[in-house]
Structure formats: C-alpha cells, structure tokens
Amino acid sequence: MSAHEVPSAGPQEIELKFDVAAADLSLLKRRVAAIEGRTGPRDIQRLTTTYFDTDDLKLKAHGVSLRIREEPGRRLQTVKSNGTTGTLDRAEWEREVNGSSLDLSAAADTPVADLLSSKRARRDLRPVFRTEVKRTAQKIRSGRSVVELAVDEVKVVAGRRLATFCEVELELKSGGAAGLYKVARDLIDAAPLRLGVLSKAERGYALRERTASQAVKAEAPKLAPGVSVADGFRAIAHSCIRQYRLNEEILLQRRDVEALHQARVAMRRLRSAFSLFKKVVADRELEAIKEEMRWASEPLGRARNHDVFLKRASSGHTPEGVDAADFLRLIKDDRERAYDDVIAVLQSPRFVALVPRLVEWLERGRWKQRSRDDAECLRGSIESAAASILDSRRRKVRKRGKHLAKLDPMARHRIRIQAKKLRYAAEFFAPLCNGKAERRRHAKFVQALEAMQDELGALNDIATGRELVAGLAQKRAASEPAFVGGLIAGAAGAEEPALLKQADAAQRRFARAKAFW
Q: Does residue 79 sit in helix, strand or coil?
C-alpha cells in the first residue's frame, strides 16, 4: 500500500435518512406537527423522477446515479455519487434543464462525464426505473441550525414490478450538525425509525434486478487511499452499519437463517473495528455503545448456535441408527424461542435508538476532539495505520497459534477470535492494495486465514453443540431426547482429533503466508 493524492470532492449534502413502517406513518406525522422550532408553512409536492443507466448498468457499478426530477414548473437533472466515508455525506451535482431529455453537457463536471465518454455508452443510456413521491417538507430551527425535514411516501416502478415504502430525510440547511441530530432524537422518541442505508436509486435497482430481501454479505468499505485515519475508520464503521441494517430489515420481515448470520457478522466486524482502532477512538461514549452492542448480540449468538447445530444434524452428522426426531424437535423449539428473543431486542425502543446513537458518535463523538498528539494520529494516513494494525495482529496470531493442536479449547477459541479480527482487518484495508501483485498477495493471505478459521470454527461448533446439548439435558434429565443429544454430541467429538490436525496444518500454512502490505 502506498499513499495517493486524494481527489477533491464535489459539493456535499449532510443528511440523515430513516425508514418508517407504513403503520407508524400517522404517529410520525403527529410528532412532526407538534415539533418545536417549525418555521414557515408545510410544502407538499408530488415528484416524479426517472433514473437512467446503460444496458450493462455502468453507472450503478460505479456508485453513481443520474436522474431527472419533474417538479412544478421545472425539471432538475441530478448526479449523485456515494460518499467516501459513510452514510451522511454524498457528492451531488444538480442543474435545471430544458426539454424532455437528458442534457449531458450539464453533467460535464461530474463523474458521469468520464463514465459516459464513449459513444456506445451514451447510445446505451436509457430509463431504467422511476419513482413517484408524495413529499411533505418542513423547515425546522434547532438551536443554531436549520434542518429540512421531509416525509416521503414513495412508489417505485421498474417495468411491471412495483414497490412502496416510506422514509424520512433530515437535511442540514445551515448551522452545525448538532441540530440535525437533535431533531432525529425527537422523532425517534415518538416513532420506531430505523436508519436508512438505501438510496431511492438502490431500491429501484434492487426491484429491477429482483435482489431485494436477500441476505447481504460484507462489502468493501469506501476507503480511498490517502484519507486520514479518522475518515478511514468512519468509512469502515459505516460499511458495517450498512451490512447490519440491510440484514436487520430482512429479519424484521421473516426468520431468515442467513440474514441473522450476516447481521451478527456485521456486529462482530464493527466491534472488531472498535478494537483495531482503539488507540485513537476509545472514549466513554464508545464504552457505553459497546456495552449496548454486547447486550443486543447475545440473542443473535444463541439463535445462530441453534442454526449451526441443526445444520450439522441434518447433513449427516447424526449417528447411524439413532432416531433423533424428538430431540431435533426440541432443538427447533428452542431455536424458535431464541428467534423470539432476537425480534424482541430488535423491536425494543432501547435498540432502535442505538444505531442512530452510534452514527452520531461516529460523526460528532469526543474521539474526534483529541489532544494534540492524538489529533495528529487521527490526521495521519490510513495506510500507515493499516500497516501498523496488520503487523501487530499478525504477530499475535502467529505467536499464539504455535503448537495449536496441543492447546486447550479455551486457548484455541482465543486464537480463533484473534484470527477473525486479523481477517476483518485484512478485508477492511483491501481497497488500499496497490497493483495486481499486491492484490494477489492479499487474496492468498486472506485464503490462508480463512482456511485456519474454518478448521477452528468447526472445532468451536462441536464445543458449542456440546454446551447446547448439556443445557437440554439439564432441563430434561434422563429423558430419551437428552440421551440422543448426548449420542450426537459424542459422535461430533470423535471428529476433533482430525480437525485439530487439520487446524494445526492450516496454522503453519498461514504462518508462511506473505504480508500484502
């Protein structure tokens, strides 16, 4: 990884967006009507917006949207690109245009100009979907800030497919961001608003491509080479929040095994980011947030343990000749109760307020107001911080992983956690890889880590399954299902010697893997 000059950004808009269920819309509107600081009349508009892209969706692939919005008496052509650090900042270019078609000359100073520089790309440009929005907007004075609050009731149309949703947008018009968050807290106190991480364009593409409601794996953070440590950390944290929210939305609709797994992964990745950057981001508020995240993570972990056990039991890991039907029914019942606990946490006001609280800490927390020396660290380059973090974490895993086969289960568990943090760090910093050779070394390094994690994970699954069966046995002592559970756990335990040998070999291969940084 090497330092690069950071390109200048386009004009930035600072906004917060929240998803609101249609059933809670009237509650939200009543709160908006009663909110203090309202200035001027409400503005109700009906807006139709058409989004354009090429046949191969080139703009989408580069995180850029191009649209024309029809408003009373005018047509606005807008280009937006994803922000470099998170959910709050996006570059936006807006021009009023004449006529009924796009005016690409008005987008000459935007990312669209390079992406559509070829004749073929311009020829392939066409409408891909449209949105129809009823927008109720109101300006609010909050302290020294003026915030525009817009409630959007949205219909998205892509061909013959249609979807509807509601969202609230808070945009800072003047003053500091403190006023923006104050308004957000007032609204969350009244209605269960959840942080919105999908733009209308992303929703339109998902509808068009039928990818909505699919569990989402971790994406590479928008980590531009040359950014500061502070902005790099924010980009990483926001990528974790985005992954979490996309999977949480699925969990709130249905009990999806993969969505629960990916939501839990997102939480673990975020907690790992806190650990990796703790020298520069630790403060009292973060400790409180971490405690809340531990509380929220516990039921997800229990539900996941049941899912893993049931998957093993249904894929040939039940001893031959053993009738496990009654036992598995009990495990499935326990699993449903664990999912009940997950949904109860996700729907609790305590948790609903946690994600916005985390975002506010990321943008305005005391960690950004450091002493002189610490401030220098935050302004330093992310490349230097990445190399230091990766060096330190790699040394720990290599040192503690020696003679892995001889370690007790608790020591192996600690190594597994350290290896997981190192892997997350390697994935966080992947966008900083410079050139094909460095990217190849990165891929091999991560593959070696994954192989070791897989073996250690299999060992951990056996240990967790044993604890799950023991808990059932305590509830149903001397029962037939408890006895069957013991047989299943014992059969799984017979795999341990081979897994230990494989884990030890994987650790040695990892120890030989070359650093990519």
A: strand
Q: Are 197 and 216 in contact (CB under 8 A)?
A: no
From the list 216, 244, 243, the residue with the least C-alpha distance to 346 is 244
Alpha-carbon torsion angle 118, 123, 125, 127, nearest 10: 170
SS3 16: strand
| H helix or E strand, kind and range, residue 132 | strand 126-142
- The residue type found at 445 is F
Residue by residue, pLDDT tens for the chain (517 residues) are: 433 333 334 445 689 999 999 889 988 888 888 887 777 788 999 999 999 999 999 999 999 999 999 988 899 999 998 755 555 566 889 999 987 789 999 999 999 999 999 999 999 999 999 999 999 999 999 989 999 999 999 999 999 999 999 999 999 999 999 999 999 999 998 899 999 999 999 999 999 999 888 999 999 998 988 999 999 999 999 999 999 999 999 999 999 999 999 999 999 999 999 999 998 999 999 999 999 999 999 999 999 999 999 988 777 666 666 667 777 888 899 999 999 999 999 999 999 999 999 999 999 999 987 655 566 677 889 999 999 999 999 999 999 998 888 888 889 999 999 999 999 999 999 999 999 999 999 999 999 999 999 999 999 988 888 888 777 767 665 456 666 666 676 667 778 889 999 999 999 999 999 999 9
Which DSSP string do the residues of 186-242 spell out, in sequence order? HHHHHS--EE----HHHHHHHHHHT-TT-----------TT-BHHHHHHHHHHHHHH
62, burial (CB in 10 Å: exposed 0-12, middle 13-18, buried 19+): middle
Burial class of residue 449 in the structure, from the number of CB atoms within 10 Å of its CB (0-12 exposed, 13-18 middle, 19+ buried): buried
Please tell me the distance from the alpha carbon of residue 236 to that of residue 38, in angstroms, as a whole number.
36
Instruction: Look at residue 68 and give its three-state secondary structure.
Output: strand
Nearest residue to 28 (alpha-carbon basis) of 194, 195, 190, 196: 190
What are 70's strand-pairing partners?
A: 48, 75
| CA dist., res. 14 & res. 176, Å (int) | 10
